[in-house]
Write a structure and sequence with these properties.
The chain is an alpha+beta fold. The chain is built from four helices and three strands; from the N terminus they run αβααββα. The radius of gyration is 16 Å and the shape is globular.
């Protein structure tokens, strides 16, 4: 009975590679870029690959991947 309750209340973990938007921490780990640098990139590129939702920045993974491909340095 307890196992059934645990399975019903469990949150399905979506792999970062399948998410559309990433938090600063998730993006930092996924792209191997420091948290401070990732936050600065998000602040400077708001609307390009980052959005501000509530009190946090979110990185649009596909757009950031394109940004990285087109950049010679981050």
């Amino acid at each position: 009975m307890r196992e059934a309750l645990r399975r019903d209340n469990a949150v399905a973990a979506i792999p970062v590679s399948e998410k559309y938007m990433l938090t600063i921490k998730e993006a930092s780990e996924y792209f191997n870029i420091g948290v401070k640098k990732m936050r600065r990139l998000a602040e400077d590129n708001l609307g390009r690959f980052a959005v501000y939702s509530g009190n946090r920045y979110l990185i649009i993974r596909t757009k950031f991947e394109k940004f990285i491909d087109e950049s010679s340095a981050v």
